[in-house]
Amino acid sequence: MSNRKKIIYGLIILVNISPYLYSFYDFEKVHFNIDNMIGFYPIYGFISCLGLIIIAKMFAVFFKKEDTYYDD
Question: What pTM was estimated for this model as a whole?
């Protein structure tokens, strides 16, 4: 079996096992009520990633240079 297939099978197993890890999480130590929602951290991470991409695109518009910037 090639290394590529091993990596793909390993990722598939990891993705399928990860939701069951919530059974080992201690929900008594949470600080906010929204932390108890199953899937909160993946959703929060996804939204944060989208926000960073949008901010980077906005910076690109403001700091864009002309094509001949280095020719001068």
Answer: 0.52
